[in-house]
Amino acid sequence: MLIGILSDTHGRAETAAAAISLLRSRGAEFFIHCGDVGDESVLDQLAGLSAAFVWGNTDWDRVPLKRYAEQLGIACHGAMADLTLGGKRIAVHHGDDSRTMRQILDEQQFDYLLHGHTHEKRLERIGRTLIINPGALHRAREKTAALLDTNNDHVQFLVIPSN
Questions:
Q1: From CA 21, how far away is CA 25, in angstroms rounded?
Q2: Which domain holds residue 32?
Q3: Predicted structure pTM score
């Protein structure tokens, strides 16, 4: 399964749209947003797609955002998601709570840990868990997203053209 991963859009809908379009052109079947969505305009870009997201530390209006996501058919998982896609178990957390991140890694129950928050790409394996931070779509020198192939654990970082 091909999973498109994005994070830290901070309400930049045009950049999110460009990232989603590029990920779709590469075959992404499911989209995961690792938090700091920002506002409804970003969720609009995921409407009609198989998608899920978690909260980031700057997602302030959580009740209206969650309600809006539900109307669009986008799964809001709160602070952490525990997903099974392509036969793999995936933890999704924004990355702003180091204790939760450490617990996920210590337990070694997940094939992948997807996170954002740092606005920097990351690809690292700790034990059985492959850690992926797609980078950021706002406040980053190079705006990036990631494409994960669960069949072979291949991760490709994609540079998103600036508008």
A1: 6
A2: 2-159
A3: 0.96
